[in-house]
C-alpha cells in the first residue's frame, strides 16, 4: 500500500471526486483521464479487487435506477462518471484502517459540527456492517448459503432485528465514548506536512486543469 498519511489520502481522493463531478456533460476525453487516474489510485492503494468489485456493483445497480429515466445518452455519462468517483472513494475507504476515519476527517476545512456528524455516521456504518457480517455467518451456520438464500433469510423481521441490534450497539459505543471523556471534539492533530501540502496542491491543480479544459473542448 502507498505510504501516505490518512489526511492526505482522503484529500487526494476528494480531489479526484470533486474534479470528476464538476466535468462538463459528455466530456468523455476528460472523463477518461479521470478514469485512468482513479484506476491508478486504486492500484497504488492496493485495494482488494473482489471487495471493490462487489461494492461497485451494488452501488451502480442502485444508481442505474436513478439515472436510466434521464435517457440512455445522459445516463451513460452519469453512470461512468459515478463509477470513476466511486472507484476513488471506495479505494480510500476499503484501505482505511479500523477506527481511523476521524484522523483523516480532522484535516478537512469544514465546520466542526459537520466533522462530528460524519465521524459518528462512519462509526455507525462500521457497526451496521459488523452486525450484517454476524447475521450472515449465523445464516450460514443454519444451512443458508449463497446470495439467494441470504436474501430469503433477510426478511422484514430480520431487517428489523438488524436495525435494533445496530441501534443498541451504537448507543453502547457512544456511552463508552462519553465515559472516556468524549466532549464533541476530536482529540487528534492531523495537519499536513509541507511535502504533503505541495503534493495536494499539485493534485488540485491537475484536477482543475482537466476539469476546466472539459468546458473548452
From TrEMBL:
Location of this chain's protein in the cell: Membrane
Recorded topology in the membrane: Multi-pass membrane protein
Classification via InterPro entries: ABC/ECF_trnsptr_transmembrane (IPR003339), ECF_transporter_component (IPR051611)
Record's keyword annotation contains Membrane: yes
Primary location: membrane
Keywords in alphabetical order: Cell membrane, Membrane, Transmembrane, Transmembrane helix
Transmembrane stretches, start-end: 29-45, 52-72, 78-96, 198-215
Protein name: Energy-coupling factor transporter transmembrane protein EcfT
